[in-house]
Structures are given as structure tokens and as C-alpha cells.
Model the fold of this input.
Amino acid sequence: MTGKPWLRVLVAGILLVLPWLVGAPRDAHPALAPVLWGRYSLLFVVSYLFHATVIVPWLLELAFGSTHFSRRWIRRTGYAWFCLALAAGGVEALFRVAPSLIPNGTLTLLPDLGRSLFRGYFKGQMPDPELGFRLRPGFTWDEAGHAWLGDLAAQGIALPTRKEAFSLDLDPPCFNRLDERGYRGVVDDGVRFSTREERPRILFLGDSFLFCARLAAEHIWCASACRALGATAVNLGVFAYGVPQEAIVLAREIEYYRPQLVVLCIFDGNDLENGAEWQEWRASGMPYWKWDSRRRGWLECSPVLGWAAHRFTVHFGNQDVEALPANPLQPYRGEIAGASVVMGFAPAYLAMLETSPEEARRHAGWGPTLAGIEQCEALCRQHGARLLVAMLPSKASVYAWHLLERVDPMAVLEAARGEPLTPERARRFVERARMYRNGFPAALQAAMEQRGRPYLDFRPRFFAEVENGAPQLYRAFDTHWNPAGHQLAADILVDYLASHPELLAADRQ
Done:
């Protein structure tokens, strides 16, 4: 190789580039992997720049001999990189000592970074030895939305075009405040505190489908349903909670809020997994923020790299990504049952589609979930209230099921991040997903019927609405309901309680 300098350069270049090509993350849109936060994405950018300005000139010098220009270039670029590394190290140390200086958008994009740096005190959250975290009483925030702020877009799973970014998923600006207990709390609708006892009080437990950070409390589906019923809504939803945590919340708060009816809202997308994670965290004995970031290296918790990732993401959020190669489900743009839709899907919720009822019962989260329901039932009996278990559907259960035979099976499996990514595995995934359509709700319904407990599954009405050509019910680049979905959910609950009036006639102690 000494007589062929070009071959030395070629081999060295391949060796330099190969590690980053092999280690490319699957977390983000393939075309934007270098600029969206994944396992290594910011390191891609920094490494390529370093190679282009320092390593490659050095290789050229070795191959073709030293020149005054090459020595001067290497000396200057090396000094520049040293100064950059020194500055980045200083800012890194400053952000770790004083994380409150980190721009808010960085923490919004990387919430685990915020929990780690703040030791659990992050964006209105406080550490809790039983719940992992709880929300800070009296916390306030202003919220307004568009497609780029959806959770799927922020994670790089499904990206809007420039036109879609500011025309879809729009929410009017709203000011929100948590109550004195740290929840959305009582939605009065103008009713004075002294007269609330004249109205039935319905307490709702659940996750982000109840918390709904981007909506005013009175516009959330549970409040709309209670208005129609002449009842008072008590919204105790907290994002990322599973049933075990919701049972703990009820134990703490049922005497304070004194409901006649408790509606335990279970989400078919990830509540099983949330129950398993809660159990694993409690068994670890670690603080929640430390347990939550246990699998992340120090680079993934770097505030400097997090800030840089946020700036890159904001920049590309203003670009037109329509021409970029993408999985046909991320997002899907087309028709479903005659209705025009634009929507992406959460990989974890897509993966749940192939779960059979038997597999749901064997899941590590099944036991904690049933135990949480039992605890809620016992608390309701003790305080003279009734319990209604409700199943809320994910976008994957409602919409993706219709696309399983219209999209290449390999693309479906890739969107669900299934492994191994082979044609046989893809064919089997689609076959099982078509058969079960997420078997967790069926398993839970059988368990509730066996125990003789009221159970309301929202899924059949959502399925029927879509099959009848209803307008889109979920946000395009977010996993949650849009206003049409909230209204349908409210109608489902109103119709059910109108046909089961005994649930609102529980004895008061």
C-alpha cells in the first residue's frame, strides 16, 4: 500500500465512516437521522465535521506528503476544535450546575434530560416515593398548538410538511392552572362551591388522554360529558401514569373530592407497559429520575447536545420534508373508509396490535393492572361510590388496522419497530394484528365480566364512526384525540350513563 497512496486514503476513509453508518439510529426519520435526537444523532454531525476538517487533511498529508498549506490548515483547525471543546465543556458544566438556564424548548423535546438534571423536579413535576413523580400544586402553563408540537413530530417519528406544520392540529391559546392538590381538578362550569353537593360528582382517573395539556380543562371530553349529564367533573388525569399509580392517586384523593362515581380510564396502547414499568421501578429501590435514565449514557443526558439537537430540530421543522423518503405509515396520507386523513402512529401502539388476549394476561403489567383495579373497587366501596372501568382506544387500534392490507408488510413491521425485520416476520405480524387488533381490551373485558363489574369499551363506537366515514378523530402528528375525538368520547360516556343511571345513584357516607 505504500506505493498506492490513494488506496490508503480510500481504506482509511471507509474505516472512518463505517462505524457511523452501522450505528445509525432507528428512532428518527431516516432522512433526518443526523439532525434529530436519537441514540447518536448529534455525534454524527460533530464527527463528520471533525473528520472533514482535521482527519481527512491529515490523511491527505500522510498520503501525498506534507505541504505548508496542509500543516497550517491542521494546526488552525485543531486549535479551533480545541477551543470549541473547551467552550462546550464550560457550558456543559454550567447547565449541569444550574439547569434552570437551559432553554425550555430543550427540556420539552428531551423530558428525560430534564428529570435527570433537576433530580425529578421538572416542568411542574415533583418526585414522589410511590408514584415516581406527581404534579406541582398550582403549576400554571400557557399552551397553544400546531402539528410540529405533536409528540410524534417532536420525536421524529412522523414529520409534517411546511404547509401541514401550521395548518393541522391547531389549538387556540389557553391558560391552565393545576388545583391545590396538583391536578386539573374540579371543572365548575360556573357552579359555586356551596352548591356542588346538589350535582353528581364524577371523578376521572387516567393518563394524558385526560390531562390534555394543550386544551383548557372545560374542553376536555370528561368535562363535556359532565356538562351534558348535569354533573361536576373531577379530572385527576396525569400523563404517563398507569393503573397502579392511578389507584394510589384515588387512595389519596377520594376523601377530598368525594365522588359518587369513579371512572377509571385505561388506555389500550401502553397501560400494560406502564404497569410493568411501575412494578420494575418500585422493585429497583432507585429514585424515579435515576431509574428512568438508567439505560442512557452521559452523552444522551448532555444538556449541550440536547440544546443543539433542539436547535437542529426547530430548523428542520421549518423545512419542507414532503419529498423525503418515509415509511408509508409515518405519516399516512390518504383515505380510510372514504374520509381523507393525515396521521402518524406511535410504534409501541402499533406493536400492541398483534397482542393476543392470552399474551396480554401473561404480560408483566397484567398483575399490577388488575391489582390497581381491585384497589380502586375497594376504595369506592369504602367511600360509598361506584367504579366504572373504561377502555380508551389508541390511534393504531382505530385507524392503522384498516391499513394493514394496503401497506407493504415490511413497512408495517418497520413502523412498529418489530424484530427481526424479515418478510416472514412481517407477514406474521400483519396476520396477527388483523386477527387480534390488540387483545388487551378483550382480556380485560373478560376479567371484568367475570367479576361482575361495570365495563365500558369506547373502541366499538370509534371503530364504527371510522367505518362510517367520520372525519379524522385523532391529531395528525400526535397520539391524542382532536376536538372531534373528544366530542365522540363525551357522547359515548353520556349514552352509557344515561342507560345505567344506577351508577350515579351511589350512597354517600
Notes: Confidence is low (pLDDT under 50) at residues 22-40, 190-196. Residues 68-97 form the longest helix (30 residues).
